[in-house]
Specification:
Largest sheet of chain B: 3 strands, mixed
Strand content of chain B: 5-15%
Helix content of chain A: over 70%
Strand order of the largest sheet of chain A: 1-2
Largest interface: A-B, 48 and 59 residues
Strand order of the largest sheet of chain B: 1-2-3
Order of helices and strands of chain B: HHEEHHHHHEHEEHHHHHHEHHHHEHH
Structural class of chain A: mainly alpha
Shape of chain A: elongated
Number of helices of chain A: 28
Oligomer: heterodimer
Structural class of chain B: mainly alpha
Strand content of chain A: under 5%
Number of helices of chain B: 20
Amino acid sequence: MSAEQVILINLLLYLVGFSFLIFKRNTLSEQSVGFLSVTLNVIGVLFSMGIRLSDIMGDVIHYDWFYIGDTRFSIDIIFNELTFLMYFLVQFIALWVQVFSLRYMAGDPSFGRYYAYINLFILAMVGIVVSGNLLMIYMFWELVGVCSYLLIGFWYEKQSATNAAKKAFLVNRVGDIGFLVGIFLIYRYFGTFDIAIIIEKARLIPSASFNNPLLTTIGLLIFCGCIAKSAQLPLQIWLPDAMEGPTPVSALIHAATMVAAGIFLMARIFPILTPDTLLVMAVVGTLTAFFGACSALNQYDIKKLLAYSTISQLGLMVISLGIGAVNAALFHLVTHAFFKAGLFLSAGAVIHYTHHQQDMRHMGNLRRQIPIIFYCYTICAAALAGIPLFSGFLSKDAIIVAAFEWAANQPSQIYFVIPAVCLIVSGMGAYYMMRQIYLVFLEREDNPLELISSGAVSFYKNVAKRIEGIVKVEDDDNEDDKLTVEAFYEAISVIGPMELAVIIMAIGSIGFVFSLNPFYAESSWFFDTFPHESKNYHWIAYVAILVSLNGVLLGYIYTKEESNRLDKYKTQPDGFIARLVFRNFYLSELYQAVLVNPMVWISPVLHKFDGIIIDGFVNLMAKLFLNISMAVRWIEENVVDAAVNFLANLTNKSGHYTRQIQNGKAQTYIITIFVCLVLIIVLLII
Amino acid sequence: MNNILLSTLIFLPVIAAALVLLLPNAYKDSFKWISILVSIINLLNIFTLYNTFDRKLTSFQFLEQYEWIRMGLGSLGTLSIDYILGVDGINMPMVLLSGIIFLAGSVASFTIEHRPKAYHALYLLLTGSVIGCFVALDFFLFFIFFEFMLLPMYFLIGIWGGERREYSAIKFFIYTFVGSIFILIVMIGLTMSVSDTFFSQELNTVVHTFDFRLLADFKNYISGSLLSPDNSQDMFGIPARLFAFILLLIGFGIKLPAVPLHTWLPDAHVEAPTPVSVILAGILLKVGAYGFIRIAYGFFPDIAFEYTHIVAGAGVLSIIYGAFNALAQEDLKKMIAYSSVSHMGFVLLGLSSLTAEGVNGAIYQMFGHGILSAMLFLIAGVIYDRTHNRLIENFRGLSSKMPLYTMAVTIGFFGALGLPSLPGFVGEFFTLMGGFQSKVLPDWVPMLATLGLVLSAGYFLWTLQKMFFGKFWVNRNHEHHMKDLDIREIAMLYGLAALAVIFGIFPNLIFDISGETVKLFLDKF
């Protein structure tokens, strides 16, 4: 069995999972739904690892799909290192999100529906990853959009959730239009949708004519798709709202599925991107990274803060793509997937344990109550902040160094703005993560301890007791190995699915997982398969460390001060700038006013036009014909028919008069003859 | 059997209609079953037709040809009208669609209680004439069927319709009738310009023919005649062939409908009973599109090539204008009607691109839109049956009480707004792709059309949110009427949904059939 067949089977499995669960969503018990869905996902992960071990790479497989005339449209599956990376990552993160949801979604009346959508979401994302042609990518791309619509609006009775879902879909549609037109132009330019052939043909273009306007346009159009899906400026507005969905869904969207799709797409078609396109990407990425980080600085909502941090981190990835460091971008995508999933899942756990409280101002002191979550959260946050020993440091470092190297090779000093922004954004990341940890977990003067659910407290006490027991067993050298393994399983079983998922994500955020030398990104195994080199500017790494630590320190100091004067019931902060940043520069409101409202306004106007002018014309014609026929009727009655009647009357009358001549009296006849004779004579004479 | 298959498709329903009329009213419960039975037999026959259709051939298949009327015209020669039926890659998908839609419609007609005898007789008559219109290969025969469709439609809307049914029915009738007059003019002009060379020699006189196959071939035009390609005669200041082409555009544009000839459609849809709406959107609009391909483009390729941007313009205008109007609607059925206008615009866009992708895409879009619009009108019918109300604002949160219904609506809406794996996507993708591949259209034309994709997502999602999400509420205390789908509705909606998925995932089911014919069709340009 070839790798491609395995992948097809894998896709089919998710399809079966989706269909089965959607039809049985009301009849299956939560246990069987969860068991089925998680099992399918485990099989998927095993498949992806099995493929890696079986060492079949570099193949593209084609199945005929349909023909239009002589043009073949095929189902292509491309399998290379990039495919494998994403194929594994998506399913691995999704697996732990699913495990997490077992507890988080427990008791929800739509448990089955939730897992059905998740299966479809994974299917769509894996589909994008393995697709070998742009038509297929676009199809799965749209499917991802629909899945996000279904999952963000999962609690459809909530107005805000359905609004957010609609917004996400429509904003993505706008970007997709660009992508779609880009695909059409690619087809015109290269004559195929097949990515392998497109890249091959792009290589053959002489470098002098490579940077041509058409190819740049194509690149920018496809980048439109990335702008929408990967939440870049100016279409990032849907992502903060998307947190209306269940929190594990946010983890999935922010970590491995939706937003990763845009970065993945650009990496996939990277060889056809012209220098001009790349420059635009770098600039867009820079703006996104900076403004996203700004908005993350003063959020109140635990998930919104994370959403803006995602935007900012995605901006970094796009910068990395724009400066040509594709593999650094992918590396950051991978590390980000782990720590962001960890952060969102932890946030989900916090929300779960605090009776669905999302406002960080009402939290605090949770460190004691839910220690496992706290430690995992700190690890993931440290990774985001770029603290050494954690994964985020490695990937961020690679991007920043690459950015400096790139800027140095540019003709003007102004290009150093981009690496500088990378550094600043990194510092801001450290700041807002510290702020969040402080507000949520650390001791504060006003500490609403009663928030935490009693279930969570007893649960954690229980966990602590069990772990104590295990540690004791491990200490006892007389016990044999088997018992400790059993005890280990027992420990896992008491930890519970939510904590387990968070722990796995936290482990994935530790630097050692990626590189044995956690201070030096280039020694990571990642760059063995995805070569990335930087020669100079290694000292930047130390600057980056300093900036991050500074950020943490500032975050601690300012938040300590902020927490003392925090107004818990204010909807937004004071001050114009703070408010501007808090509301994400009022972009949503701007679009509403400038784009959506005119559309909503113009449609009734056009409808009026339709009714009054076009239909009015039709009705006018009808009336005109009616009036003409009325006139004709009048003429008919008063002229034509009148003439006929007149003739009839005339005949009648004349008959009446002439009748009187024939009255049978001889005298009358003689007089008549006489008159007639006279008349004839007169006529003859004349 | 194969050699009378097409005639069977036409005359079985007609005979059944006579049967319904002859049966006494005591059997009135059986009428709907007769309708369904005939529709099923027709669909099975069409299925045989579809399976035995040779995908490699470009000529007409299942040909039936009988001499019908021979009329001497004195010095003008002889007029020859034949009974010719046949299918190729262009009308085969339409025949398949008719089979599906008429079955769905007959199931939807189950609830008709008012004068069932007349209703089902007319319905069966309509079935026969619509299929006849698609398979007729003689212009005269085509025209007879084309006109004959009006009669049952007029009564079906006028008797079983809503409040303003008389107005809508007469509007529909007059609109379409005006269109057919234009077509009639062109038909006479064409016939008088074309001679059947073979018979002309045999009979030693000029034999004027209505045969589609001969009309499509420039060889048969009498040199110097009114509509001959080498003629430079003017009519009202424009070349005669261009004049005829414009008449055809208007005639079939009304039927399609293309903006600004569309205003009969929302009225007719709103007033028509559900099954008639289904037929109207699902199959009758396609007659207009079919006329565009077969007659306007098929017989006037020289003019069409030169003026194809006008058709593209009408297409794009319909797409955007229809979408904006759909956005403004408060009535669910009217919203769907305007979305039909918008989606039929893609047919014009694809056809006018004169590329293999575009024309095949247009044929696919006709088929796909037929399935989806039928589904959408059935969806509107479901709530109308329960509450006699269709205003979007009167419903909220239906998904909690009617999950099966909501799922069908979701499939239908997402199919219509172009979700991959459903037919709307394939049609829109390939018509747009044709637009971009086209050598005759500028890039901004399809670019403008993509705006329709965003707008259609807008109005469908908006409706979905307003009616199906949120807390359950129905205006005027109709809450207790809102039962989920019954078994008949499930069969219709999910049957169509299944077909939509099948044809959406395997577009080759249509493209394989249309491909070769379209290749031949495009050779003319």
